[in-house]
């Protein structure tokens, strides 16, 4: 029988109704009482790291989860992390960089409704997550939700209320589950001994372009951040608006050592700055990187991981374009 560690972080799955609305109240051990069949599957120890709404998750929390995984990695066969859904994709992406090459399964799950609701999806997701945490065919960081196993670097929350809340972006599902039976599709790469990181540079920002974006907004963000992810239109590019102020802002701050990651706000199929002149003008700048088929969540977390290690442009570029957990497939 496998030994699994459950890490609790709060979220809807652990919430109860309070006078101010739903708030995380239940510990991991209390969650397990709602799914007694898990005890027939594996032995479980519980560790409550924090109990918060996932809206309140920060990079410091990601690092705390990574430290807990490192400290307990040799003692367990797999891990289940209960987490709120709203930022679960960001946490999954961050942990994919903080814990690289893990052979053991690290499964994040949660729910759209609390576990004590009659109509909850919590029990299904929790049981499925433990099935996956015991599986020999699954490795590293994944999200288990609504019968799907989604790679941590490819997950995104695409429904705000439906039980099938998460999608795998530009990559197939790793596996599916029916009646708690796992059908794995893809076995990921792993190392006998993973590489752990416990620090991130949180000075990475994100901005979504809208028609008429003011260059001063980019200036404000770049003045305060080491890197800025820009969600562009379509396949990517910055509008000129006949005055080139957006381009001038990018050039001025990248000359000062800041980094830009150009991605697309379109969910599927990725970016390609070479298609239009508005994007092609960015490609000659060594401090401008292109996300291609990466998710925004992965690009953000990867830059936080990279910029904690180096700010040398060639090394930043090398690390960004080196695939980690299949986060990037197309690179121009």
What does this structure look like?
It is built from 10 helices and 18 strands. By secondary structure, it is of the alpha/beta class. A hairpin with a 2-residue loop joins β8 (140-145) and β9. The longest helix is centred in the N-terminal third of the chain and has 14 residues, at 59-72. The protein is globular. The mean pLDDT is 93.
How many strands in all?
18
Question: What's the overall average pLDDT, rounded?
Answer: 93
Please state the structural category. Answer: alpha/beta
Order of helices and strands: EEEHHEHEHEEHEEEEEEEEHEHEHEHH
Oligomeric state of the chains present here: single chain
Q: Unreliable segments (pLDDT under 50, ≥5 consecutive)?
A: none
Percent range for helical residues?
25-40%
- The rough form would be described as globular
* Helix run count: 10
Q: What kind of sheet is the major sheet?
A: 8 strands, mixed
Biggest sheet, spatial arrangement of strands: 4-1-5-7-8-9-12-13
Strand content: 25-35%
Rg, Cα atoms, Å: 20 Å
- Ends apart, CA distance between termini: 46 Å
